[in-house]
Amino acid sequence: MKLKVLVISLFQLFSLSIIAETDNEDLNFYKEIGIISQDEYDILNSGSKLLNGKYLYELRVNGNIESKTYEILVEDGKMYFPIFKFFEIIEFKNYYQEGQDINCFLGEDMQELTIDTNEMGFWKEKEFYVLEDNFKEYFLRSIRIDDSNFRLNMFLKFSSPRDIKNIVARTKDKLEENKDKKDIIYTNKPTLFELGYLRVKLDKIYSKDKSYGSGKFKDTWDGKLEYQGAFLYGQFLTSYNLKEHELEDNKLLYNDIWEQHTLEIGNYSTGSSSREWGISFKKDKGYLITRDKTYIIKENVPIGSRVELLYMGIPIAVEDAINGTVYFKNDEIKGDRQYILKIHTPDGKIYMKKIDTASDYNQQNKGQIEYNIDFREVAQSGGKIRGTSRIYYGLTENTTIGLDYNRDVESIDKSYKYIDTGKIELIHSNYIFSYPYTFVIGKEKSFTSLYDKGKFQAKGQIDIEKFRIKVNREKKDKYYRDKLKYEYSLEYRPINNLLLKYEIESSKFYDKTKEKNKKYSGSYSKSYKNFLVSGEYEHSTLDKDKYMLNFYYSGFRSFTVKLENQWRDSGKEYETAFTIFNNTNGKFDYSIELRHSQRDKSMITFKFNLQYDNWFNFDMLADKKGNQQYKIGLDRIIDLKNPKTIIENIDSTRVKVITFVDANNNNIYDKDEKKLGNVKVKIGKNEIITDENGEGVFYGIPNHMIYDLDVVIRKPSFVLGKNKIKIKGRNTSTLEAYIPVKPMLTLTGKINLNSDENKPYEQKINMYRNVLAKLKNNEGKILEMSVGDEEGIFQMSGLLPGKYIVELEYIGNDYHMNPVTQEIELDYKEKQTDVNLSFGINLEELK
After folding, report:
1. Residue 735 and residue 750 share a domain
2. Tens digits of per-residue pLDDT, 477-524?
3. Kind plus residue range of the DSSP H or E element containing 3
4. 649: which DSSP letter?
5. In whole angstroms, what is the distance from residue 357 CA to residue 43 CA?
């Protein structure tokens, strides 16, 4: 049957390809003598497609011939493509049938495609045929059909299995190539003192307030200096208010001083003439929880950064860093969610920071320890210090113990006194019937006789399928107003991103009063491509209903649009805000906000902010009442060691590169080794050429990111070798990166004939030139090849120190020779870069 179809199709291919090129007069002749039928005449004469039936086409995919016999079905002038045969031809196997659906996973990103066979085509002889238009939509970027020559030329919209195999093969080769390379990473060394960076911020402000005065514009100004530099083996940060002549916070930071902990020593401004000293040592979680259970995300970022807050991949807010810290307070920030901070540094770099607001109850792994220690002077108390010290230690993988000691400073009888309390806490988590649970028991006790300031607390949590149950019970001493407090909550997630919650809060007070509050709430978030919708409703027995509905869209190039709506007081109080903000930290950064509030008598507020090229900014604020404010400012960063250099990020480092000839191949600069000049080094777009002393300096390289050093050695007898040089700045002290440059070795070998020494000279030359020398690594991979000259000498150059195998093999037709191998180790010896070897061989003449 298949042979018959093949013969018929070949005949059609031959005859119709000739007839299709004829004119109407010839077609009439062919019809009259019976070569073509009336139906065939009508189709050929009208230029339509082929008759109903099956046709064999030559199939090209991405320019390559894949099949000469791809069978196409034509019905009612429409072409149908057999999908399983197509899969077989391109070697696509990543599909399966489920009922009436064909599920495919296309390309490297495994894009899912579901084909409903009830709607998208028809079955015939265990093959499923898809209409041309649908076939193109599913699989093709373009298709060219040549009916006269029966050719199909397709270009896929996804990576074919062969493409993926080639990519994997190239990746494997690249990994093989790089596996022997050694990463050399340099970072800053702590320094006693080094001049750093100064940020100058000046603003001119014009404003008028219709509520006071004549409504004329008044002008004022504002200015600030910020400094960051290396000091006492840490980072010193300070700021000075130029207008108020006030020194603001001074901080000495030691980032990641131990297991992601940060040590901070500071002298802080209180907003008055007094100042406070403080010290803290803690691991930052990236978020804070206020007393009203509001979440605030806080993160230290490079000064001048612009930061996006992403939820479900969509930007929901953007903030500019203030003195190296960014804060997000947003109704979209909830517990048990994951957020991403997309940080755009002033120099155009981008990096991500994950924030999880899930409750971990400060649990630790076995043997792991975490500290949170904070001491702060209370200025108005006359020098007294309030402090918090908290330690969590993992006793086992499931059990953690916590110890607290707090010293508060309170005003009692017109004098400040200490209130000391201690707390012990036990946290245990495990599974029961495969359901995870956690419970916490804590006891707080006062060590001050003035007050009974203590409490007992027990809380727990368990997850059962789609439900989460939380319980919290507190019994407090008379220092507190409430005697007993109970909290219960039931959370239910019927589907992804939908949360239904029921809460009960009950308190009994020492004055014998009671208070009880019940809350019902529901929230739902859904993202699709660049669109996010988020809604929330809350009903409380002690408060009016409130609800919100927010929309976010980030599909407009580099800016995001958001529409936020909130209803409070059971819908009577309404506020909406329409905002457009730029997502990047590029040449132009802007945000536009239009806000309407019923609370402020239907006031409409318009805000506009523009930043240009990290040195100029403009702010505008106007409302319906006629109040206006305009701010024009200058914002610039100066490297105090090189003021002419343009610096875009105050949290940067200078990188000093030193290129040297690594004569002993240890990748370490030794004092007797020579430095090599005229070497080009690149970090991103920045490029320098080392001077005659082998030195060069980069300025303003942002910290906390790893950069590759691209090294180009202009002298042909030197190479970088198998090293990859990387840097990662951690502070503002100068980072020194030593780049070892390797002189290349030359291997010279001499072939000696152990027999037939009396052969004629021409014959000996022929013998030598048919001996192939191979240089292999320890795994047997051939690295270099060479043949002997008329004297039996061969050379291999451009080699680096290491262990190799040299193998000699006779490749001629006149003699037989057993391969000769020799293991060698190349090394630098007294600045000598040539290695000489001698080989003896025996050639047996073939009879």
Report:
1. no
2. 888 888 999 999 999 999 888 999 999 999 999 888 999 999 999 999
3. helix 2-19
4. -
5. 69
Task: Judge whether 547 lies within some domain.
Answer: no
Q: What is the pLDDT of residues 411-428, one digit of tens each?
A: 887 888 888 999 999 999
Residue that has been written with the tokens 């073509």 in this structure:
36
Distance CA 120, CA 668 (A): 67
Give 177's pLDDT tier (boundaries 50, 70, 90). low
- What is the number of other CB atoms lying within 10 angstroms of the CB of residue 485? 19
Between CA 205 and CA 618 the distance in angstroms is 10
Phi, psi angles (nearest 5°) of residue 405: -140, 120
Integer Cα distance of 820 and 807 in angstroms: 6
Q: Is the dihedral of CA 465, 467, 472, 473 positive or negative?
A: negative
- In eight-state DSSP terms, residue 755 is S
> 719 and 764 in one domain?
no
Domain-embedded: residue 717: yes
Question: What's 583's DSSP letter?
Answer: -
Q: Domain of 753: which CATH number? A: 2.60.40.10
Q: Give the total number of structural domains in the chain.
A: 3
Q: Within this chain, do residues 780 and 687 fall inside the same structural domain, yes or no? A: no
User: Which residue range(s) make up the domain with 820?
Assistant: 745-845
Can you give 27-40 as a three-state secondary structure string?
HHHHHHCCCCCHHH
Beta strands (DSSP E) in 781-819 are 782-787, 793-799, 802-810, 815-816
- What letters, b where the CB count within 10 A reaches 16 and e where it falls short, cover 810-840? beeeebebeebeeeeebebeeeeeebeeebe
- DSSP letter at 158 equals S
DSSP 468-517: EEEEEEEEE-TTSSEEEEEEEEEEE-SSTTEEEEEEEEEEEETTS-EEEE
The pLDDT of residue 502 is: 95
Q: Where are the beta strands (DSSP E) in 76-120?
A: 78-82, 95-98, 101-106, 111-116
Q: Which of 540, 547, 595, 532 lies closest to 331, judged by CA?
A: 547
C-beta of residue 726 within 8 angstroms of C-beta of residue 709: yes
Rg (CA), the chain: 39
Measure the CA–CA gap between 683 and 781, rounded to whole angstroms. 33
Rounded to whole angstroms, how far apart are CA atoms 339 and 626? 38
670 and 729 inside one domain: yes
- Global model pTM greater than 0.90: no
